[in-house]
Design goal:
- By secondary structure, the protein is of the alpha/beta class.
- It folds into two domains: about 230 residues, Rossmann fold; about 35 residues, no CATH class.
- The chain has 14 helices and seven strands.
- It has a seven-stranded parallel β-sheet with strand order 3-2-4-1-5-6-7, with helices on both faces.
- Helix 5 links the parallel strand 2 and strand 3.
- Helix 1 packs across helix 2 and helix 2 packs antiparallel against helix 6.
- It starts with a helix and ends with a helix.
- The structure holds guanosine-5'-triphosphate (GTP) and magnesium ion.
- The site of magnesium ion has 3 residues, from helix 4.
């Protein structure tokens, strides 16, 4: 049974009360277990919103682009929630300060909710937490949930588990074909955006993305389209917006949309089990044992596997 205050906060989230949404997201961030029961009640209401992941290198213009898309959605009478995930900077980092300024722009607008989530020095669980924050926004009735993440190695792959559609934002300075392939961006992108098209080299980059896509043609899906934008001037946004609508429409009708969500659900369960078991396993006593064994390393020739076996053996005793 949930207490009255729990029921109350669920009702408030479902009624799009931004203070309640904020409060619940703070609970998610601080990792309190009580969120689990809230989540069960909110989850059935999360299905309708479309989740868009926007990723790309630092400074590519992801936030500027997100803001323009938010304006576009508002014009179309849609509501939007934005989770700006910043795995790189500490909580007081520059990007987050910028995001705080953005949030203030919409503070009185009940159709936009923007929230930053930083790793606070601890990457573990950030992906889960941002997905759960997305669930809260979806349950509040936001038509669109945007996850904005800096692509620094892992970020873009994690986001690809969280979203229905992934936009990879690059800029003329992003580099050549080889780097595109190395970064594995071709596999995760549903749409490529070449931003800062006011700069030299944007047409060359757009062409080289198309060439790479041609080489790595995937029979199971259409080549991701490439859009050129100048987000700071609001140029190319309408084209990109239409590209998103088209992608979502097509993937809904060919079944990819539902498939992706099923895979996502499975991954979430898998990861939660892993997280729970790991947490349960590493008691203070075991951590102490591990440290003790590590300190002994100079005196013996144990490999990491040997240490694992010893710790597991001790657990079974
Ligand atoms: N010339 C030019 N500048 C742009 C364009 N879009 C964004 N900028 C500028 O690029 C800078 C970075 O933009 P942001 O939107 O903060 O980029 P970001 O990818 O969110 O950056 P991080 O979150 O720090 O990774 C800002 O000074 C923007 O004004 C563009 O199309 N052309
Ligand atoms: Mg940003």
């Amino acid at each position: 049974m949930l207490s009255d205050s729990k029921n109350d906060i669920i009702k408030r989230v479902l009624n799009n009360d931004h203070r309640a949404i904020s409060k619940v997201i703070t609970e998610i961030e601080s990792g309190v277990e009580t969120f689990n029961s809230l989540h069960s009640k909110l989850f059935p209401y999360t299905k309708d919103s479309i989740r868009i992941g926007i990723t790309g290198p630092p400074g590519a213009g992801k936030s500027t682009l997100t803001d323009k898309l938010v304006d576009k959605y508002l014009k179309m009478k849609k509501s939007v929630g934005v989770i700006a995930v910043d795995p790189s900077s500490p909580f007081t980092g520059g990007a987050l300060l910028g995001d705080r300024v953005r949030m203030n722009n919409y503070i009185w607008n009940e159709n936009v909710f923007i929230r930053s989530m930083g790793s606070q020095g601890n990457l573990g669980g950030l992906n889960r937490k941002s997905q759960e924050a997305g669930d809260v926004l979806a349950a509040s009735g936001k038509d669109i949930v945007i996850y904005e993440t800096v692509g620094v190695g892992q970020g873009e792959h994690e986001i690809s588990n969280a979203a229905d559609i992934i936009l990879v934002v690059l800029v003329p300075e992003s580099g050549d074909d080889v780097q595109l392939m190395k970064a594995g961006l071709v596999e995760i992108a549903d749409i490529f955006v070449v931003n800062k098209s006011d700069r030299d080299g944007s047409d060359r980059l757009a062409q080289s993305i198309k060439n790479v896509l041609h080489i790595f043609k995937n029979k199971d899906r259409q080549d991701p389209p490439v859009f050129r934008t100048t987000a700071s001037l609001g140029l190319g946004i309408d084209g990109l917006f239409n590209g998103i609508e088209t992608f979502v429409g097509e993937s809904k009708s060919n079944g990819h949309f539902e498939n992706k969500r099923t895979v996502r659900f499975r991954n979430r369960v898998y990861n939660l089990v892993q997280e729970k078991l790991t947490k349960k396993f590493w008691t203070q006593i075991k951590l102490k044992k591990l440290d003790g064994m590590i300190n002994d390393l100079n005196n013996n020739q144990s490999s990491p596997y040997d240490v694992v076996n010893q710790i597991l053996k001790k657990t079974n005793e």
